[in-house]
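User: I'm putting together a teaching handout on how multi-component assemblies are represented. Below are the sequence lines for each component of a complex, exactly as they appear in our records. Could you produce the 3D structure of the whole assembly as structure tokens, so the students can see both representations side by side? Please keep the chain order the same as the input.
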Amino acid sequence: GESVGLHLPTLSVQEGDNSIINCAYSNSASDYFIWYKQESGKGPQFIIDIRSNMDKRQGQRVTVLLNKTVKHLSLQIAATQPGDSAVYFCAENQAGTALIFGKGTTLSVSS
Amino acid sequence: ETGVTQTPRHLVMGMTNKKSLKCEQHLGHNAMYWYKQSAKKPLELMFVYSLEERVENNSVPSRFSPECPNSSHLFLHLHTLQPEDSALYLCASSQEAQMNTEAFFGQGTRLTVV
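Assistant: Of course. Below is the structure of the complete assembly, with chains in the same order as your input.
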């Protein structure tokens, strides 16, 4: 079935490096995408979203890139900090359906 | 704080017990959701409510029974659960159901079935 997935289950970076977390989706009808961050013992927290009429959106230290041609979504975190250590999920939907989540990438930041 | 509060945070129950999970949202949203999060698996959507009416039920076993008495409160009634039902149960809300908008999550209830 159609689903959202991530390329790597874990990613380890040094403090200060830039992090890139990738996500592939298979539903070409999806038109809305979100990145969530989940810290240990907490629920997922919204980071940034993007609609299919855009290919890039920037927030504070984060950038989301959408490549609809290859159905690929990425989250870039600039100057990664220890507080960024968490599990990151991408999610997608099309109007009329609930959010579908990928498995998550665990980001570990060492200082 | 996300504006979505879940209680209890932790729950241990036997397979013959009956318990309920509670969720309350203070965001004025019209839609509420239950998700199940198991280790090594994506979040699984269980139920969707829009304006207190159930709009989606993803083939969830009948031992899970949701209740939405008003747009701010959502319950998940549990009875005769199995050990494989042990997981983190997450409640979420959004402005409208199943539209292109973010969902706000509570901190979850960690359920252990013994």
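A couple of points students might notice: Chain A touches chain B at residues 3-4, 31-32, 34, 36, 41-46, 49, 51, 89, 91, 93-104 (CB under 8 Å). The CA atoms of residues 55 and 66 of chain A lie 5 Å apart.
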